[in-house]
């Protein structure tokens, strides 16, 4: 047994070494976060925290906007109303002037008060190259601080829908800090010590998590009676689905904003884990997944062919298969359920597509797409063989499964489509450059106005690189003119807007520039072991989104954080 | 003996050169230029780091230069300890990221290799003694070595972790802890460590046991053993000689098996989401961070070479033939 | 790359085989019939081979179709149950077994060809050629195969069984080369080889007609080990997500089971069969190999 002793000692040494070396974290002090005062979340961050600069869209650590920096308004998607946030009140003295009064008693976390100049500076930053909202100056003429707490914005062109979208989606930054930063620091600096007005401040971070600590002097505690019970929020960088599922089961995370396959089984069997709805689809909808055809390629440039394709897809199968009813099939208009008022239901009844393989075959036949050579797939009316690929990013398991199904559906009616799974970045490159046949895309989220969706579908002009909208490269002057009209409709004029959207839907349903597939869920599953009162369909629980993704704090998620309660 | 070590060192040096060359070649001779497109796509924020990254890329991938020039600058970058900047954990240097993960991987590997080797050898030698034991141990051993590492890891994670709830199944330590040198933190480290270690240990164990068992049998059939037996030497003594002789090839086997066990450790880490090199490989694959991936590759190769060298030294020290040579050579 | 440390056939200690003869053949057969390890191992391997070869004809649909109810445990209709999507796990398993044999034969085959070619040439030619080839072998031997494979395959956009097999072959041959070399070395100095050499026959001819047949048993065993190694390596690659893009294999089944949380959902019928399949196939091959070793190597028969 003499031989055994040395290795055992070595092993012990190795373990100790592991322990020591992993001690090199950069968080201040060790120990445990008190469990009943700490909220563990995951599902928002896809990489380690590296930046706290709200100007670096897509790169800042989630929570930077929302928890630290706050916007003037929130937008409540349920009621379709703007909620005053940093703004105490606002009015439109004339059609092209918006006057906003700030709340009194709001202070930055460095002690300085919030003043009108902060708003002015924030907007002025939009003039810098590389600012995420430089387009705001296309229609804003001037912005002035008329007194300590009043800002007056004058417009050169009236686009209230677009302006209000800016006003709730963009946070105010402090003038006394940001006006002195260099241009590169503003657009590219990591801003390691963020000073905001919000409910939380930076505590620490490591590669796998971001820790926020409560700001005890938050203005809304007094002004809006919002209490943040969680002293710490630990946001864990996304691990794989199954790891997250495991942590949820063991109450190691309180809120997961991931798509977790099989979560329906867990929701049904584990009383402790809940989501918004008790039954399918369990989650609310967050955005629409579109099947985007490349309209510059044959035969996808033919509306009849696209109609046939739309009729061929069995959405029920996708929804029940890979998604296990966690999502719902989309309306043929693609508009989210929150925008029901903008949908022309008669028109949809008349012109909307539904799944019918025989109908798809009939459309193909009528348009001259026939299988002359007998290989089981149709050719173009000119007799050219058709062979298309449908690409979704590699590793996006649910979409990969859905793409396989769509390809099979299409093959069943004689359209030769093959699913391919390139790397995400490659796909983005090809998508932007217009080098693809078919892709799936869901980049437009729920917002204050369906205008954002029509902007996504119809925006002109089509450029060489299309990086955010109109990936399908659809060119229709009429549709774009209507979309611009929609932007100019006053924010509270739903009927006026619906009139325009009806015309847009006529074009969209006839031409099908992109085919709506399903509503991607607003993934949120929470455990009730340490925190409760999560948003749900039940009476007496909050109705706000329990999703801490980028852009959802402004849609009410911040109030969810104030509503949840610790379990005693 | 020095000739032996010198020769080995030469092979290792050569291997290192080959590995670096592979690393250099793969991105260049694969279709397309994934690294450049990765760089251009990387949403890089800090301009200073972007400059460093582009410099590094131009230096080591400077595609306008002639090939031999590119190759030489690749080496010079390497000697400066510059493995590039990660795009996944941008803007951290690849080297830092790897160094953070290495202790976890070593903490799994070293105990698993040493313990499985020692216990496996004992067990194998023991099994070779009795026919009954041999007939049961042998198939079990073979089945164990035929088990894919990740599958055993999955089985353990499922049975002991999820169903029984005895051990945690993911991560290096609990998320509710901040790393420090407290008892609570270390115990959390240990409980997270145990299952990955165990699955690695079990699979490796089978291989060593079989190896030893076979060696002993070969040795017992050797002429010297027969001779000793004919002389009436006690069975135990013959066995002991056989065991000693069988140890030598087992030590060489250790070197040969190193690659496999490391591969096993990487797969096991992935199953348990253990924050070592394996999980890092998976993450860098998923985010197409080729600098990081290649950095890990070089690191693993260097690790294997060092381990091989240590094994060689041990071999030389234990092998009676070289020992005699050593003393004989000096006189 | 095989899991087996010092498995029979790998050991340089194995005695050089004797020239085979008519009588010897029947004697071998005699012992083969009585060797339980050989028979059991071979039996199991054949059963799986049968599953892989004719099984796909009996599971009618392509294995990735959604054919049944979702997440059902094994039952009469779906022998191994269904997964989250309602795919028939038995159908996937059957196709996976086929893919396992294919990658084994293919990856193992490429490795075998390279390994034996290098080994024979090195062992037979000797001298400087031997030195160089031996150096090359040692270098590739030290490189951790799976890690090399990961780096190489990560750069490929389109992945298939074929490419996977070639890459596995290219990285796992050295050990076979080493073993073959040491055998060839001892055979190369035999009288009948000298005789052949004197008669002026070509090197290649001598290797294939005089040397190789005399160590055929040894070659078979090497191939079996390479086969097993290739299967395990491929499973590892599939599991990491570097498997064939649109295929079915046991490794891919494991990958998707993990990805879709089969463990957390307790769907044991999804992740146990593929791993068990690999283990049993490779394990039986190894045991079969021990059996072969005992049959061919008279010294071991007593046991």
Which features would summarize this protein structure in a list?
heterotrimer; B: 331 residues; mainly alpha; MetI-like fold; 13 helices; globular; C: 303 residues; 68% helix; disordered N terminus
Explained architecture:
The complex is a heterotrimer of chains A (568), B (331) and C (303). Chain A has 3 domains: 8-69 and 198-283 and 522-566, D-Maltodextrin-Binding Protein, domain 2, CATH 3.40.190; 73-184, Dipeptide-binding Protein, domain 1 (Alpha-Beta Complex), CATH 3.90.76; 285-521, Dipeptide-binding Protein, Domain 3 (Dipeptide-binding Protein, domain 3, Roll), CATH 3.10.105.10. The model of chain A is unreliable at 1-29 (pLDDT under 50). Chain A has a 7-stranded mixed sheet with strand order 9-10-11-2-12-20-13, with helices on one face. Chain A has a 6-stranded mixed sheet with strand order 15-19-14-18-16-17. Chain A contains 19 helices and 22 strands. Chain A has 568 residues and is of the alpha+beta class. Chain B has one domain: Orthogonal Bundle (MetI-like fold), CATH 1.10.3720. In chain B, helix 6 crosses helix 8. Chain B is globular and about 80 Å long. Chain C is mostly helical and 303 residues long. In chain C, helix 1 crosses helix 12 and helix 2 (36-58) packs across helix 12 (268-296). Chain C starts with 21 loop residues before the first helix and ends in a 7-residue tail after the last helix. Chains in contact: A-B, A-C, B-C. The interface between B and C is large, with 77 and 67 residues.
Quick rundown:
The complex is a heterotrimer of chains A (568), B (331) and C (303). Chain A is of the alpha+beta class.
